[in-house]
Write a structure and sequence with these properties.
Distance between the termini: 46 Å
Order of helices and strands: HHHHHHHHHHHHHHHHH
Oligomer: single chain
Strand content: under 5%
Shape: globular
Number of helices: 17
Number of strands: 0
Radius of gyration: 21 Å
Length: 337
């Protein structure tokens, strides 16, 4: 264990040394090696891409490794037990927090949603988990921290958890269990799987490595493509244009962003670099984050999967309640920042 700890310290030191040199390396490669004028549109785009790509990927590798270790404490079964043992009022907050710590995107969270409901977890509590799991995940937080700083990341986390908790609470108060598909209601209270042994610390470290392979392996291409689009926006899109379309002065920009985001599908890795570039060109932070939230939390593939377990009225209620929460977040960010 001591040997693993020493190796970890050395690895962190190397990581930090490389990370701290990314900006001068980007400027050197763009200006000196490629000979591109840094003040030109092309220079701004190339420098943006060279700097942000390794920066975001390095942050992802570091944070996902530690989150992978954390996730070894949260199996689907013990997560279910924790949620089932709470009333709705306390359960909504716990479910939202567990959604942040567990390894599920909007689509992969749906099978767990079914498992939780059939095991007796209150419907509203389960919805808090379903909302928080994709929207306030480590990928989104790492990217927001790397591109905007800890204040924006913390505000996003707080408001995202707030949306998840309040939306779940509202849905729970509406008593809409009858709008679950019949096959789901027929399986209520089936119970869980047998208890599993606790992993060793060596196995938890392996879980961190596997999380990096799985998550970063899946999203790195989205990161690169998102940063490439962001680089084009950063270098070539006029600032006044984005200020007119998504600026804080256009009151209709927040609801338009939410409506535009719902039918789209991408993940945080693909959309956050684009949001970064849009904000740099004059888009309001609240409008941009409202668009991001709607894309991540209300994606079309998620709705299609939910249709297998929820009746249309409950899906519409879910979209409406979460959409209203995202609208409030967008207007709030635009008003205070």
């Amino acid at each position: 264990m001591a040997m693993m700890g020493g190796t970890g310290v050395v690895a962190l030191a190397i990581w930090y040394a490389v990370y701290s040199q990314l900006r001068p390396f980007s400027d050197w490669l763009t200006g000196d090696v490629f000979g591109i004028d840094m003040a030109s549109h092309l220079g701004a785009a190339v420098s943006f891409f060279i700097y942000d790509t390794p920066k975001v990927l390095m942050l992802l590798v570091l944070i996902v490794f530690f989150v992978g270790i954390l996730r070894s404490f949260f199996t689907p079964e013990n997560t279910r037990k924790m949620l089932a043992g709470n009333r709705q009022a306390a359960g909504n907050g716990l479910a939202a927090l567990l959604g942040v710590a567990t390894p599920f995107c909007s689509c992969s969270a749906v099978p767990l949603f079914v498992g939780f409901v059939t095991a007796g977890v209150p419907l509203g509590v389960t919805f808090s988990f379903l909302i928080a799991a994709p929207m306030v995940n480590e990928v989104a937080l790492v990217l927001l921290y790397g591109l905007f700083g800890w204040k924006v990341a913390a505000l996003y986390m707080g408001t995202g958890l707030g949306v998840a908790m309040v939306a779940g609470w509202v849905i729970g108060k509406l008593n809409m269990e009858k709008y679950l598909q019949d096959w789901v209601r027929n399986q209520l209270f089936m119970g869980g799987s047998p208890a599993q042994r606790k992993p060793t610390w060596s196995e938890r470290m392996d879980a961190g490595v596997e999380a990096v392979k799985e998550i970063v392996g899946k999203v790195w291409l989205y990161v690169v493509l998102g940063i490439a689009v962001g680089a084009i926006i950063h270098g070539y899109v006029p600032q006044d244009f984005m200020a007119q379309i998504m600026g804080r002065e256009a009151w209709w920009s927040v609801p338009l962003a939410v409506v535009m985001g719902i039918p789209m599908y991408t993940n945080a890795a693909g959309v956050v670099p684009i949001i970064h570039a849009l904000i740099g060109k004059g888009a309001a932070l609240g409008t941009a984050l409202a668009f991001m939230m709607s894309v991540i939390a209300l994606s079309l593939p998620e709705m299609l999967i939910l249709k297998k377990v929820l009746k249309p009225r409950l899906i519409a209620t879910f979209v409406g309640v979460v959409g209203c929460g995202i609208l409030l977040v967008g207007f709030l960010f635009n008003a205070v920042l």
